[in-house]
Amino acid sequence: MSDLAGQLKIRLDTVSSAVTIHSSRPVTAARVFAGKSPAEVVRQLPTLFSLCGTAQAAACVAACEQALGRQPSAAVLARRQALVHAETIKEHLWRLLLDWPRILAATQARSPAASAMPQVMRAFMALRQAQQAVADPFTVHAQQAEQSTAAVLDPSALLDLVTEQALGTVPDAWLQTLDRPAAVRRWAEQTQTPAAGLVRAVFAQGLFACGANAVARLPEAPWRWLAESLANANADAFIAAPHWQQECAETGPLARVAAQPLIAALLAEYGNGLLTRLMALLVDLAQSARGLEATLDAGMDNPGSAVQLPIKEAGVDAEVDAGVGIGVAEAARGLLVHRVRIAAGRVEQYQILAPTEWNFHPKGVVAQGLAAIARGGAEGPELERLARLYITAVDPCVDYRLSVS
Amino acid sequence: MCLAIPAQILEIDQAADAATVSLGGVRRPVSLALIEDAEVGDFVLVHVGYALNKISAEEAERTLAMMREIGELADQEAESIDQAHQADQATELDATHSEHATPSESGR
């Protein structure tokens, strides 16, 4: 049972710089939903994939709604967007407070930043519980979904943690100030948050371009390609090792914010190495915080044109058959795609394409990044530390085992 | 696709902010860095060595039942793949060495 979540086995050969990645993740686990009613699947699926349960719920309900020919109201959709933003904030703070510090400092000792993580979890869970206490917006029952918008959610505890633990200032001001690479160093030196400490460490250790490689990022709206690939007879192979028109592609925070001015400049200067990745995580965090506030404030009418929305309207473009639905949400780690086929009120087929399969593809961005690190000349424990840092920067949603030989 | 697995807390080490849980009958250490008020006997969702949050015993049982179903589906699939492999091997005796993990390697 404990092995059910699967594991990534990552091998790095220092002589040839060859990287092999073997995954035992249960990529076809979603088959368990065949034969169930859509309402049952929407209820059960997020409890099974609970780590990113909100994004899973969002993709699931969107897929089922499309297959059933239903459309949620703008207010319901805004509420779902807000909750996915909140989950991304929780996940990004986890990386920044627990994972990056442990590896960047090369110590097993608990970082002082870690003590804030229970507060993050509490703030996130409080939002979810306040929502559940009124009604769950992630449901195919239109009336119940409408009721959910009556819940009054106060995101201030979670947003305060974003400022205190990461940005040092409110998201809008931070995004405006950090408009070019030179501003990053100044911000890091003047800011006392744990996240600023991470940026200072990346500068001090000279890791700006560490792991940079040429793997492309998934384009913004690949819906038709994804819908076709998932409808294909070879869909299982695609789900296990997805590709964008025969090429590996990256999904996740960096792909989401690549066009943002600071990140575009960092990409031009340092490529997709560690500094760019860390700053992309922070930009995505700031944008998610802004998005959470905007989608809760504006509610149905105007979530703000400058705000990124994690739940995508993929189904329209995808041109799927009747009874088929595609639901897409940008989860913390990247694009999450659900596809469902419903007939006579029962789910006939359920598929999930998750970000880890793009990023930890045997020839994908992590494989290429680790090969680049090995070619850079690091050896022994330092090579292993840098490899772990790069893996953490891309972030698998599963346990991994790294062997360097 | 990120499965978090329900487990029951057996012991708590306050000083280390850690606990021992029963995960499918196996004792495993987990970090309590993400939760504040865990007690022995509580059910928690476990992911990559962290207890994520507390859940009710009923919720734990429902999730475990679904996971058993997934496990059975995976076993059936592995069996059919094995049979296909055996058929392949029977026809391709001169196949080159496979680099796939052997069953003994893939176990934990």
Automatic annotation (TrEMBL), chain A:
SUPFAM superfamilies given in the database record: HydB/Nqo4-like
Cofactor requirements of the protein: Ni(2+)
Binding site for Mg(2+): I352
Swiss-Prot/TrEMBL keywords: Magnesium, Metal-binding, Nickel
Molecular function terms from GO: nickel cation binding
Keyword Acyltransferase: no
Keyword Magnesium among record annotations: yes
InterPro entries reported for this sequence: Ni-dep_hyd_lsu (IPR001501), NiFe-Hase_large (IPR029014), NiFe/NiFeSe_hydrgnase_LSU (IPR050867)
Coiled coil: none
Binding of Ni(2+), residues: C397
Protein name: Ni,Fe-hydrogenase I large subunit
From TrEMBL, chain B:
One GO MF term: carbon dioxide binding
Biased composition (Basic and acidic residues): 94-108
Listed NCBIfam families: hypC_hupF
Organism per entry: Halochromatium salexigens
Pfam family, one: HupF_HypC
Protein family membership: Belongs to the HupF/HypC family.
Lineage: Bacteria, Pseudomonadati, Pseudomonadota, Gammaproteobacteria, Chromatiales
Protein name per its UniProtKB record: HypC/HybG/HupF family hydrogenase formation chaperone
InterPro entries xref list: Hydgase_assmbl_chp_CS, Hydrogenase_HupF/HypC
